[in-house]
Structures are given as structure tokens and as C-alpha cells.
Specification:
mainly alpha, two-stranded antiparallel ribbon
């Protein structure tokens, strides 16, 4: 599938049940936070299925199931929670 919608990306990402991944993706703007679409371009996965694009993003973001330190230190998780927490809740509850 090429060019999946944000809804498709977020729905697939929610299957990982990792709130910080969802918050990061919801904040993705291509400048401060580079999300799934950026990783898909980096790994030439634009035409890959949604699950493969999301899996590449998750693999890039996580180390031993936790947000990699270099990403963790870049995020103000409280601010992301305040801005995107309700939306993350919606995806995590489905």
C-alpha cells in the first residue's frame, strides 16, 4: 500500500500498546519529530504495507522495549501528553 493515511498508521501503531510511540507519532512534524513517514522514506518503504512501515518506525525508536535514550531525551513527554494524550487514549482503547 502506498501513502497510507494517518489513521491507518496510528491504528497499526496502537497495536504495539506503547503510549510514547503514539505520542511521538502524533507530534511528528518532519522537523522536530520525524515519524513513520520519515522512516519509511529513509528505508525506501513508501510502497510497503502499513504494518511494515510501522514496524520499521518501532524498530528505529525502541531498544529493549523502551524508547531509545537519544529519542527520549529529545521529547518533553509531559507536553506531548498534554497536547496529544486524549488522542493517544482513543487509539489505545480500540
Amino acid at each position: 500500500m502506498s501513502n497510507p493515511t494517518d489513521e491507518e498508521l496510528l491504528t497499526e501503531l496502537a497495536t504495539y500498546q506503547n503510549r510514547k510511540l503514539l505520542l511521538w507519532q502524533l507530534a511528528a512534524d518532519g522537523r522536530t519529530f520525524c515519524g513513520i513517514r520519515f522512516i519509511a522514506r529513509e528505508y525506501d518503504l513508501q510502497a510497503a504495507p502499513v504494518d511494515e512501515q510501522v514496524q520499521a518506525f518501532v524498530a528505529d525508536m525502541l531498544s529493549d522495549g523502551e524508547i531509545r535514550p537519544e529519542y527520549d531525551s529529545m521529547a518533553d513527554w509531559d507536553a506531548l501528553e498534554a497536547k496529544h494524550g486524549d488522542t493517544a487514549d482513543e487509539y489505545l482503547s480500540t
